[in-house]
Amino acid sequence: MIPQLRAWHDTYGKAGLTVVGVHSPEFFWERSYDRVAAATKKLAILYPVVQDNDFAIWKRFGVWAWPTTLLVDRQGIVRYRHIGEGAYDETEEMIRRLLAERG
Q1: What's the pLDDT tens digit per position in 43-54?
Q2: What are residue 69's DSSP bridge partners?
Q3: What is the per-residue burial (b if ≥16 Cβ within 10 Å, else e) of 37-70?
Q4: Is domain 2-100 annotated with CATH 3.30.420.40?
Q5: Most CB contacts within 10 A, which of 14, 42, 76, 87?
Q6: How far apart are CA 94 and CA 6, in angstroms?
Q7: Whole-prediction pTM value?
């Protein structure tokens, strides 16, 4: 998932896409800020990553599995959801459609 997010960030960032990673820890040892910061550096993640230790974002968007991809439009409406790996072409097509809606 991270290579695709990185590619979409690089490809569509200037066109208006904002990629935000949300880290909701599965295990207690994943809650450390230092570990999350080190992982983002090691994986060369340049887009922002939010640490969601209390699962507030997870709950707000009805997420129940890792990974889940959401595309939210400029009005804050979830327009696309994919659970699990894969569907990268479908996701990218929806990114293009949403960016085209900007006018």
Answers
A1: 999 999 999 999
A2: 82
A3: eeebeeeebebebebbeeeebbeeeebeeeebbb
A4: no
A5: 87
A6: 16
A7: 0.92
